[in-house]
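Let us work through a complete example step by step.
Step 1: write down the sequence.
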Amino acid sequence: MSKLSYLIVNNKEKRLLTIGYHWFVSKYGGLHSCVLSLRRHNYIRDGILEIMLHFGINSFYDLFTNVLKNESNGPKEFLLTITDLFVPMIQNEVSKQRFVESGVLAHWLEYAITHAT
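Step 2: predict the structure and record it as tokens.
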């Protein structure tokens, strides 16, 4: 799926990215597979993040906040998912910058504080 996401993002036909993103965030689409894979095989989290970054290139904030939250089965699972994604996200300078500047980090922190109890 990583190769597919890379090819879609780097294709000259930008319509493919829109179609790919809609598939990715659809019920039982690519994001669903990514979250399940992350739960079962945490050691591939860098690859999972790469796929999410490719598909979410034009919808970064929405993907990593609202869509990811809706894909999770409640606050606990969302917190576990963002915990799994946090380390690889900040290890990559490009994603770290987008993570901070887009407001995703602020959203995640606020959510974690609100749902920590």
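Step 3: interpret the result. The radius of gyration is 14 Å.
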